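Hello forum,

I keep getting stuck at the same step: I have a sequence, I want structure tokens, and every attempt I make locally crashes halfway through. Rather than fight my setup again tonight, could one of you with a working pipeline run this one for me? It's a single chain of 605 residues.
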Amino acid sequence: MHPADYFIVVIYLISIVILGIVLQRKASEGIESYFLGNRNLPWWVLGASGMASNTDIAGTMLITALIYALGTKGFFIEIRGGIVLVMAFFMIFMGKWNRRAKVMTLAEWMQLRFGSGVQGNLARIISAIANLVISIWIISYFAVGGGKFFGELLAINDRFAAIFMILLAMGYTVVSGFYGVVWTDVFQGVLIFIAIIYVCAIALNTAKIPDEFLISVPLAEGKFQSISTTVTDWSNLWSSMELNLPGQYSAYNLFGITIFFYLLKTTLEGYSGVGGYMSQRYFAAKSDREAGLLSLLWILLLAFRWPLVTAFAVLGIHYGVTQEVIADPELVLPTVITEYIPVGIKGLLIACFIAAAMSTFDSIINSSAAYWVKDIYQAYINPQANRQQLIFQSRLASIVIVLLGLLFSFPVVNINDIWGWLTLGFGSGLFVPLLLRWYWWRFNGYGFALGTVVGIIAAISTKFMGITFPEYANFLIPSLCSFAGCILGTMMTEPTNQEVIDNFYKVTRPFGFWGKVSTNLPSSIQAKIKAENYRDILSTLIAVPWQLSLFLMGIMLIMKRWDNFGILLLFFMLLSISLYFTWFRHLAKEVKIESNDQEDGEMER
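Reply #2:
Ran it on my machine without issues. Output:
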């Protein structure tokens, strides 16, 4: 980069550090402030922060690689996680279900569901450990992608670039807590939008793609192969159910089956409420209505990521047509920035992508530290800990988690490899217990603990036994093993205390197999809960294709497929009108239950 570009990047980094220092006092008020911002942050701040946190640099590189190599088919592959389709479920019902618990972490939530006895404590500590493990792996994944990106651009070692970037994010996160996370995310979100507008404008005005062109796909052992495709096939909205791809991408050749399992896996995850640091935004929300509004904003802002990655892919293809084919699809992003972005703007764009990386790191660091402080240290090691001790443990945990994440990133060289395993293997081993906890009254803490442990062991075993499994097998094996553990653990032990289950249902009001519990409530309240649940189920069926069509419109716009864009726009408008009547106009209403036997405890606002 030119010295002017470095100057812009340095100014950005200094600004982030200053903002962290300014917010340090508010974060030090206590762990409620450090991890949730005292549950007093505006919904638009939480929504904008969520968007910035989901726009990570490693994911952006990977999605750009898939769109570059596979076109629209790459979008459908990212149903596995990159589309963040679980947001449709959080927007309609899962966000408000989480908020109603009024807890700080998913692990603490376990005691609301399973009680404060042995099974509740067991579920809580297993959940805390599992979330800490997956957070460390996610930091490793981001370290690989971020290091690869900044190492290529700055002509420095990938690992050094990753270490510098993560340690910087850790620094201001440790100091400023959740306040620093969300407000720096808002600031960084503005930078991300500058990048989106500029890159999309360049792609629309510069890139000329011929009817037939070459792209490259990865083989084994760092080798790549160029293959020919046509612009019609590359940008087609409707793909063949079978592909003929070589190398690593041959995992997607049974395209129809693969996408079916991706959609099934994402749907089950959405209904289970998995979300990691995403859930933290809902624990911090002020009301059900604000949980819905922050989700809506989150999705609308995330939609702009797809024209961005498509613009990079289009420019990567243009570079291959006019100069030479980019061999490694995961290097399309830094190559395009190097070749097409002028001095000054390049520094601003690099700052934008540092912002994208930072906003993901800080969210992971802050939310994962909460599991140690709230669910292990305060709950079992030092229940009498004072405010200073808890804040110290919060900062210490953040540092240790980051260092472990960096340590585990060193053996990994391929972003797609670790992302595929995280989303399909390890993630699949966790979501079954999370699913059953919402919808089956008989499910207990022992079943949750055993199902989680078995799922994790199955996921790790399939990863390290040296056998190459299809991606759908990486989904099926851990999830089926986890399901067996859940059923075995539940049926061989006593049910959760009835008072605990009754209280959980009154607080959360989920749908599912709760007939034995719901009949204890007054009939008028039962009717209102059922009406809300029916609306939520119907709205979810609308929200999923609504989100997909919204994201696809941005891709078609940059690809200049005006026919597909028009179809998607009409579809999106019809779905939006439907969502207004089934979901949006009901946001201001909330059923509250004050007691078990008084109908005047019901309140609607």
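The CA atoms of residues 306 and 353 lie 15 Å apart. If your local run keeps crashing, start a new thread with the error log.
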